[in-house]
C-alpha cells in the first residue's frame, strides 16, 4: 500500500513519501493510487534544467535549421497515434551517440543529473492528440522541460489520472508516467519539450539492473503488441519472459551503457553537477 508523505524528501530522505512496489506494464495496467504529479521544487535536479533551458532550446533550434531528422514515437496500444515525434538521446542508459553529439551542451546537462537514464526531445505537432495510455514503469520521475509552448492548458496540456496541467517555457513539469495520461496540442504551432526520466533512489537508482528491466519491458511490450497472445500468458510465464529478455540488455549496458558514451564532459561545458551521477550495481 502507498505511504503518503508531504513530498519534501522526494530525493532528500527527510520525511516519508509515496512508496509502492515496482510496476512494469508487461504485467498489466497500473492500478495503484500513486501520485499524479510531483512538486518539482523538491527535486534539486530540476533547477539545472531550468537554468539551462534557453541554451538547450537554442541547440534544438540549430538542429532543426541544420535539417535534423525526427523519429515517430511508438505507443504499444492499439490506438491511432499521429503528430508525435522527436529525437532520442538516451533510453534507459542506452545511448544514441550521433544524437548526443548533435546536442553537446544538452548532453553535458544530462550527464550532471543524478540517476537520469532516459532523455529525448519530444515534438507534438499542431492539432495532435495522444489518447489515454499508461507508461512502462513507476521506477522513475518523468520530467518535461518546456522549450516551445504554444498556449495554456486549454490549448496545449496533459492530463494525468484526471488532473490537468499545462507546460510553461523554462519550467519543469514532473509526473508519474505509469498513471493513465493523455496529451493534446490544439494550437497551430508545435509543442517542444525535453523529456527526462530520473530513476527514484528508493528503487536503487540508475543501476544496470533497473535499466535492463526497463529495456526488457519495452521489448516485451512491442512483442505483445505484435503477437497479442503473449499478453494473455499467465503471469509467471510473463515474469520469466521478462527476465529472459532483460538479461542481454544488462550485459549490453555493462559494456556500452551511458554515461561512458556521452558527448562532452560537464567540466568542458562549465556546468556544475547537482551531485554524483547515479548509483551503480
Description:
The protein has 6 helices and 12 strands. With 281 residues, it is α+β, with helices and mostly antiparallel strands. Strands 1, 2, 3, 4, 5, 7, 10 and 12 form an 8-stranded antiparallel sheet that branches. The protein has a 4-stranded antiparallel sheet with strand order 6-11-8-9, with no helix packed on it. α5 packs across α6. The N terminus and C terminus are likely disordered.
Helix-strand blueprint:
Elements: E1 37-38, H1 45-51, H2 53-65, E2 71-72, E3 84-91, E4 94-95, H3 97-102, H4 104-111, E5 116-124, E6 129-133, E7 140-148, E8 156-160, E9 163-166, E10 172-175, E11 181-185, E12 191-199, H5 208-226, H6 235-256
Antiparallel strand pairs: 1-10, 2-3, 3-4, 3-5, 5-12, 6-11, 7-10, 7-12, 8-9, 8-11
Helix pairs in contact: 5-6
In short:
By secondary structure, the chain is of the alpha+beta class. 27% of the residues lie in helices and 23% in strands.
- What is the C-alpha radius of gyration, as a whole number of Å? 18 Å
The average pLDDT is: 86
Runs with pLDDT <50, length 5+?
1-16, 261-270, 272-281
Taken in chain order, the helices and strands follow as EHHEEEHHEEEEEEEEHH
What profile does the largest beta sheet have?
8 strands, antiparallel
Distance between the termini: 27 Å
Q: Estimate percent helicity.
A: 25-40%
Notable characteristics:
single chain, about 25% helix, disordered N terminus, disordered C terminus, about 280 residues, alpha+beta
Amino acid at each position: 500500500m502507498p505511504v503518503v508523505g508531504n513530498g519534501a524528501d522526494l530525493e532528500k530522505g527527510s520525511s516519508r513519501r509515496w512508496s509502492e512496489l515496482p510496476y512494469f506494464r508487461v504485467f498489466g495496467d497500473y492500478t495503484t493510487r500513486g501520485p499524479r504529479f510531483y512538486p518539482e521544487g523538491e527535486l534539486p535536479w530540476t533547477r539545472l534544467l531550468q537554468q539551462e533551458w534557453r541554451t538547450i532550446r537554442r541547440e534544438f533550434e540549430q538542429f532543426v535549421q541544420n535539417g535534423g531528422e525526427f523519429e515517430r514515437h511508438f505507443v504499444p496500444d492499439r490506438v491511432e497515434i499521429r503528430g508525435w515525434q522527436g529525437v532520442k538521446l538516451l533510453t534507459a542508459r542506452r545511448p544514441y551517440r550521433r544524437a548526443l553529439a548533435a546536442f553537446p551542451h544538452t548532453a553535458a546537462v544530462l550527464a550532471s543529473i543524478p540517476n537520469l537514464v532516459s532523455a529525448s526531445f519530444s515534438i507534438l505537432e499542431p492539432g495532435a492528440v495522444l489518447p489515454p495510455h499508461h507508461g512502462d514503469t513507476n521506477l522513475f520521475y518523468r520530467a518535461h522541460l518546456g522549450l516551445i509552448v504554444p498556449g495554456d492548458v486549454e490549448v496545449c496540456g496533459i492530463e494525468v489520472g484526471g488532473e490537468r496541467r499545462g507546460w510553461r517555457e523554462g519550467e519543469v513539469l514532473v509526473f508519474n508516467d505509469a498513471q493513465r495520461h493523455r496529451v493534446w496540442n490544439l494550437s497551430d504551432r508545435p509543442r517542444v519539450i525535453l523529456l527526462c526520466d530520473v530513476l527514484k533512489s528508493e528503487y536503487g537508482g540508475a543501476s544496470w539492473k533497473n535499466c535492463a528491466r526497463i529495456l526488457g519491458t519495452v521489448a516485451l511490450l512491442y512483442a505483445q503488441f505484435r503477437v497479442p497472445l503473449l499478453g494473455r500468458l499467465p503471469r509467471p510465464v510473463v515474469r520469466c519472459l521478462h527476465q529472459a529478455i532483460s538479461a542481454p540488455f544488462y550485459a549490453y549496458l555493462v559494456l556500452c551503457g551511458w554515461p561512458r558514451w556521452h558527448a562532452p564532459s560537464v567540466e568542458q561545458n562549465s556546468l556544475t553537477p547537482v551531485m554524483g551521477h547515479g548509483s551503480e550495481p
